[in-house]
From TrEMBL:
EC number: 4.2.2.29
Broad EC category: lyase
Job of this protein: Functions as a peptidoglycan terminase that cleaves nascent peptidoglycan strands endolytically to terminate their elongation.
Record bears the keyword Ribosomal protein: no
Molecular function via GO: lytic endotransglycosylase activity
Protein name: Endolytic murein transglycosylase
Catalytic activity line of the entry: a peptidoglycan chain = a peptidoglycan chain with N-acetyl-1,6-anhydromuramyl-[peptide] at the reducing end + a peptidoglycan chain with N-acetylglucosamine at the non-reducing end
InterPro entries xref list: MLTG-like (IPR003770)
GO process terms (BP): cell wall organization; peptidoglycan biosynthetic process
Organism: Bacillus benzoevorans
Family of the protein in this entry: Belongs to the transglycosylase MltG family.
Length: 378
C-alpha cells in the first residue's frame, strides 16, 4: 500500500507538470499567433496605405477642372526637375511618385518647351505630351544664333527679333546685378571668372549657337538668356569627364573653344588647330592667333597688319602668353570636341590660305616658307 501510494503521487506530479507544460505551450502559441497576426496586420496596413497613397497620387489633381496651366520646361531639364515643376504648377499631386512612375515605366525623351496643361490630365496624358512635344501654344518666333557670333552680334539678333534697341539689350547683358543672378542660377556653368576686370563681356561665349523657339510675343531678356544658358549647360555636361581629364574649367573650355572656332574653316581639322594651341601653351609660347587681335581692336578686318599686333589688350595673344581672359565668340560642338580631344601632333604653327586651306608646320622656318608661298606681305 505504501509503495502504491508513492507511485500514485509520482504519477500525479508528472500529470500536473505535463498539464502545466501544455498550458505554457498554448500560451506561447497564442502569443506568437497574436504577434504574427499583429505584424501581418501592420504590414497589410502599411502596404495598403502605401498602395492607396501611390494610387491616389497618380490620379488627376482635379478631374473636373478646365483650368489652363502654363508649364515651361527648359532645355536640359532632368526628370527630377520636370517632376517638381509639374507639382509646383499644380498639374500633378506628388513629384516623387511621378518621378518613380516615369523611371519604373522607362519613359524617356521628354522635350523642352512651354506646355498648356490642366489639373484634369491623367499621368499617361502628361507623359505623352512631354514625350511628343505637344505644346498647346504655337511657336511665335525663333531666334537663330549661328556659330562664331560675338555677344554684340547676338544682342543685335535678339534686338531685331524682339523689336528692342540693341544698346538696351547689350546694357542688360552686361549688367553686373543681372550677371550675378545668372551665376547664382547656374553655379556649375557660370563662375566668378566671368567678372574678372580683364573680361570685356561676361556672357561672351556662353550663349550657345542654336535655334531657339519662343511661345510668347514678348519674352524678357532674362527668359531668352535663360533658355540659351540651359542649352549651354546641357552641352557642357556632356564633356564633364573629358574636362576633368584635361583639368579645364568651363570658362577655360569655352575660351579655347572660341579660339578654335574663330580660326577654323570648313576644310580644317579643328583637332589639329587645338593641338597647336595646347603645344604652344605647353612650350610657353604666345598663341599668336589673329582673331584675338581683331577682338581686342573691336572691329572686323579681312586681314591683320603688323601695326595691329601692337594693340595693348589682354586679349592680344601676340603680346600675352596663355589663353585670353575669356571667350572671344560662341563655339559650336565641333570646336568644343576639338578642345577636349586635340590631335596628337608636334605642330606649333598653322597658316590659313586665301583658298581656305590650313597648313601646319613644326618649325618657324617651315612656317615662314609656307607664308611666303601663300600670303603676300602686308
Amino acid at each position: 500500500m505504501k509503495v502504491s501510494g508513492k507511485k500514485d503521487g509520482k504519477n500525479s506530479d508528472m500529470t500536473e507538470e505535463l498539464i502545466e507544460r501544455q498550458n505554457e505551450a498554448k500560451l506561447v502559441r497564442k502569443i506568437v499567433t497574436i504577434i504574427s497576426a499583429s505584424l501581418l496586420l501592420l504590414a497589410l496596413l502599411i502596404f495598403g496605405g502605401g498602395f492607396l497613397y501611390v494610387h491616389s497620387a497618380l490620379k488627376p489633381v482635379d478631374p473636373d477642372s478646365n483650368q489652363k496651366i502654363l508649364v515651361k520646361i527648359p532645355i536640359g531639364s532632368g526628370v527630377s526637375t520636370i517632376s517638381q515643376m509639374l507639382e509646383d504648377s499644380g498639374v500633378i499631386k506628388n513629384a516623387r511618385v511621378f518621378k518613380y512612375y516615369v523611371k519604373f515605366n522607362n519613359e524617356t525623351g521628354f522635350m523642352a518647351g512651354e506646355y498648356e496643361m490642366e489639373p484634369s490630365m491623367t499621368i499617361e496624358q502628361i507623359v505623352d505630351s512631354l514625350k511628343t512635344g505637344k505644346v498647346m501654344q504655337e511657336v511665335v518666333f525663333k531666334i537663330t544664333i549661328p556659330e562664331g557670333k560675338k555677344l554684340e552680334e547676338i544682342a543685335t539678333i535678339i534686338a531685331e527679333k524682339t523689336k528692342r534697341n540693341q544698346e538696351d539689350v547689350m546694357k542688360q547683358l552686361n549688367d553686373p546685378i543681372f550677371i550675378e543672378g545668372l551665376i547664382a542660377k547656374y553655379p556649375d556653368v557660370l563662375s566668378e571668372e566671368m567678372l574678372k576686370p580683364t573680361i570685356k563681356y561676361p556672357l561672351e561665349g556662353y550663349l550657345f549657337p542654336a535655334t531657339y523657339p519662343f511661345y510668347t510675343e514678348n519674352p524678357s531678356i532674362e527668359e531668352i538668356v535663360t533658355v540659351m544658358l540651359d542649352k549651354t549647360k546641357s552641352v557642357v555636361d556632356d564633356y564633364r569627364g573629358q574636362m576633368e581629364e584635361k583639368q579645364l574649367t568651363v570658362h577655360e573650355l569655352l575660351t579655347i573653344s572660341s579660339l578654335i572656332e574663330e580660326e577654323a574653316t570648313e576644310k580644317v581639322d579643328r583637332h589639329k588647330i587645338a593641338s597647336v594651341f595646347y603645344n604652344r601653351i605647353k612650350a610657353g609660347m604666345p598663341l599668336q592667333t589673329d582673331p584675338t587681335v581683331l577682338y581686342a581692336l573691336g572691329e572686323h578686318k579681312d586681314r591683320v597688319y603688323y601695326k595691329d599686333l601692337e594693340v595693348d589688350s589682354p586679349y592680344n595673344t601676340y603680346k600675352n602668353t596663355g589663353l585670353t581672359p575669356g571667350p572671344i565668340a560662341n563655339a559650336g560642338t565641333s570646336s568644343i570636341e576639338a578642345a577636349v580631344s586635340p590631335a596628337e601632333t608636334d605642330y606649333l604653327y598653322f597658316l590659313a590660305t586665301p583658298e581656305g586651306d590650313v597648313l601646319f608646320s613644326k618649325t618657324n622656318d617651315e612656317h615662314n616658307v609656307k607664308k611666303e608661298e601663300h600670303i603676300s606681305s602686308p
